[in-house]
Specification:
The chain has a three-stranded antiparallel sheet, covered by helices on one side. It has a domain at about 1-10 and about 35-60. The longest helix has 9 residues, at about 25-30. Strand 1 (about 40-45) and strand 2 form a beta hairpin. The chain is built from two helices and three strands, in the order H-H-E-E-E. By secondary structure, it is α+β, with helices and mostly antiparallel strands. It comes from Halocatena marina. InterPro entries: HalOD1. This is HalOD1 output domain-containing protein. It holds the Pfam family HalOD1.
Length: about 60
Amino acid sequence: MRAVTTASNQPILDLPPLANSIDPDSLDQLFASSPAPDLLQFRYEAYLITVEPGHVRIQTD
C-alpha cells in the first residue's frame, strides 16, 4: 500500500481497502504453500501491481 500511496499521491486512508481487489485469505494460502510463487500480479484501482522477491512494481493502466 505504501507504494500505491507514493504513486498516486493519495493518503492511505483515502484509498479503498486492498481486500476489495485481492482476497487476503487466498494470498495467505498461496504463500503458505511450498514453493511460494516467484511473481504475483493483480490490479488495484488504476494500477497493475507486480510483487516479486525483493521488490514491488506499480504500473498505470
